[in-house]
Amino acid sequence: MTKRIWNQCLKEWAQFRRDRLTVALAFLLPLAVLLIFGYAIRLETNNIPLAVQDFDRSPLSRAYIERIFATNKFQPTAWAGNDPLENAIDPGVAKAAVIIPPDFSRQVQADQPSPVQVLVDGSDVNNARVIENSIRATTQFFLSSSGLQPGSPRVATQTRLWFNPGLKEALYIVPGTYAVTLWIFPSMLSSLAMVREKERNTIVQVYASDLSAAEFLLGKGLAYLAIAIGQALVVMGVGTILFGVWFAGDPTPLLVGTPIFLANSILFGLFVGSRAGNISGAIQGVAILGFLTALLLSGFIYPLSNIPFPLSVLTYIIPTRYYIEITRDAFVRGAGWAGVWLFLLALIVLGFLLFNATRRVLSHMQLPD
Amino acid sequence: MTQTTRTATVERDFQSHESVIQVQELYKRYGKFTAVKGIDFAVRPGEIFGLIGPDGAGKTSTFQILSGVMEATSGEVQVLNRSPRDARLATGYLTQQFSLYSDLSIDENIRYSAGLRRVPTARLQQRRSKYLKLMGLEQFGDRLAGKLSGGMKQKLALCCALVSQPEILFLDEPTTGVDPVSRREFWDVLATLASQGVTIVVATPYLDEAERCNRIALMYEGEIQQTGTLAELRESLNLERLELRANRLEAVEEVLKTNAEIADVQTFGDRLDILVPSASAGETQIRTLLQQHQLTLNDIQPAEVTLENVFVTRLRQQGNDPPFIPFPRSKSTGVKQDKQVAIGVRNLNKVFGDFQAVKDVTLEVRYGEIYGLLGANGAGKTTTIKMLCGLQPPSGGEMSLAGQTRDLRNSALRKRIGYMSQKFTLYDDLTVVQNLQFYCGVYGVPRRARQEKIDWVLETCGLVGQENLLTGRLPGGWKQRVAFGASVMHEPEILFLDEPTSGVDPLARRQFWRLIEDFARQGTAVLVTTHYLEEAEHCQDLGFMVAGEVVASGSPSQIKEEQPGQLLELVTNQTQAASDLLKTQMEPWRVSIFGDRLHLVVDNPDTEIPQLRSTLDSDGFEIHSLRPIPFSLEDAFIGIVQRTQE
Q1: H-type helices in B293-398, by residue range?
Q2: Which residues from chain B sit within 8 angstroms of residue A7, using beta carbons?
Q3: Cα(A179)–Cα(A235) distance, rounded to whole angstroms?
Q4: In CATH, which of 3.40.1370.10, 3.30.70.100, 3.40.50.410, 3.30.70.260 is domain B564-630?
Q5: pLDDT digit string, tens, across residues B331-361
Q6: Assigned architecture for domain B240-304
Q7: Which of A209, A216, A362 best tests the B interface by mutation, with the highest count of B CBs <10 A?
Q8: Are the Cβ atoms of A366 and B71 closer than 8 angstroms?
Q9: What ipTM was estimated for this complex?
């Protein structure tokens, strides 16, 4: 059995190596995606125009306002008197506004909830969320630094700010990009390797021998796992150099988790390839199913907590979701095994399911009717 | 087991009629469509069994079931007394596209196949060199499969199948589109393998190749019409064939067709093929008939019935004869008497990168003439046609089309040209009638005439009442007929047909050629490509292309007559052994096995025939017959190619 898996593996390797364009693309495209995501995605913008109406005019309210602008996330927008602040947001003069009620200092000091009103331009959903989160975080920071209890039980810090206080975005984006890149490209290569056999009818030769589906899949998978590990090394190496992302703690969970995640990716590609009838079908399958889910349902851009039911259930079968946790832990949090062992387990289970699903598709090793 | 004892066992088995393959009541359905409709046959050990039929006959489905890559819907199939799936490692299967990895080298392909089929590494090396040597590929081990010619690909695929030393080989149209020389070499290898005890089941669309099988099954529309040896099939026909040559063939054909005693008449270029119950009685009858109609006859002589005659007659008995309906013409200018040059080409060249696809091609086609461009896939036929149609600019050379030499893409000129490409130009997602209406519009067929032309196409294709069928659902052969119809509706003066008949059944092929000949008689200049050499007999003029060059040209009779030497047919008690012996005595290409007989090409029959007799006698062969036979076009071309190589 091992001999035949090895035979299959060597053949895949020879085929991959032969096509220089594929080899080049296998390493250049992931880098391109890394650069695009690493440099172009900005979840948090700076210098957001913010208008403030202070009806309290107390030292406390002034200190609060100072605190907000001290984050250099916001830029003060001049706003005269009692003109309703909606008029500033509607034409886009300000992206957000803060209204401090007349009894602000009195209520805060009385340890009562302080109804500071925050208006945010919701047309840019991402920014709105960022603004909302920063103001909330600033408020909490202000309250605790002023020696006061946080006024509202709803005031909660955002994890991201908690672990990334300097607001260095690369730390947040780059580990996620590793996960998305290493999900798409290995699966793309393996799905093409699978569907090409069908499209060129070479699969018939395999069917005409007694090679089992498991041997076939393992042989193909191993060759592409080696290639994918190469891709991972290149992507993470370049990421480290360009974005200065380095291990925050114990690197072993990442070292163990990466091959398992790559195996998931390859098996997903083989699954799509075994279901698709031709190359364009396989590419669309990987692009739509793989890319979109990895991008949108993995917590890469949108926090998982914001994904509504029943879509949220779907996120549990997205391997990228778990790997993002592992990479973010490795490069940002640094909690180590204690924090991520469950995610590794989830990846192993998903990989096993994908392998069996693909094996079932090919189980007869025969032409379909 | 040594070679000799193995051969001996095989021969004993052969006589005891034990079968290695048994098929009973085999059915294969794909949804509503039934591809194989309850076929029965048995194959004996060591024989070459031919499955002959057009595209869509169910041959590939049968092969896929026999080789164990597809499940049968119902029926009993036993291969080596096992289920086909359990017998997979003891069989070898060559699919139509050969299943080779084009991005792997010859060695890598063989090694992978060996690994799939559990061949030990030590054996692999030994067999690899043995079979590569047999196929003449040993010096190309590092070459990528994708860079091999069709003939070499086919040999490599056979090597890959042989490396596990299968007891049975399934070969699904291994020679389609391969040049005649490679085809003949391939069949010689098959004969060698069969003599070593390998059982071979082979499908082919070439009826001349089918004649090299021990037994033949004629398959059509999912059913086996008849099974037997070539001699049995010929005998079962109970008809004899006459070849007739006359000046006014058309008129002679009309006269003979009305006579009930004559089973079949067909024009073949400069002669008529006539099937009659008895050659001698038929001859006298034809002579009197022609005298009554005051038609002169140049020559009439008996000839052997071909497999094509058998197949066509069987199909006709099934009522599958497509009708011939004269084309409704609206242009009165029809016949051009002056026979001007319609297509003129001088030193045409086409270079793609560092590959010369067409090299110094020169040809001339007059109005009313059929010019056949022959050659294997990749010989440059399609590229030549594309340049003539203005679809591709030439790299060099002069062209004239309908008297014009410049701007061959202008629309006025294009309306006078019809082009049927190899890949169907019909839209699969339109209905048949929508396709035809579209092409009427494209070529500017006057509105009044459109309905009449469309009706003609539908009637000719036998699609009346089914005109709203989606084109994509038609079988290949039917699509081709519709595509032909679509390309002639505007009554072109010049017609380009690129492989119009590949994969079409023999009856439909005849219909095609009647239509083509009818157009030519009305003055259309026709340039047609084909890889069926027997079809080339329909053409007045031929060009045979090899690797982009026209290596031979002339009329079919001219080409055959210009062949030096003589073709001999030899029947002995041991065909294979005689072939092996003779190949050591003369150049190997001069000897080839045709079923139970040998064909030999000799340059000096007067001295060589006695020499042959004495060689064979001294080695203990019994000579049952040794007689001169006429060259076929294929023999002629193989001779030309081999002599230019020398």
Answers
A1: 307-317, 381-388
A2: 111-112, 115-116
A3: 10
A4: 3.30.70.100
A5: 655 555 567 888 999 999 998 888 888 999 9
A6: 2-Layer Sandwich (3.30)
A7: A209
A8: yes
A9: 0.77
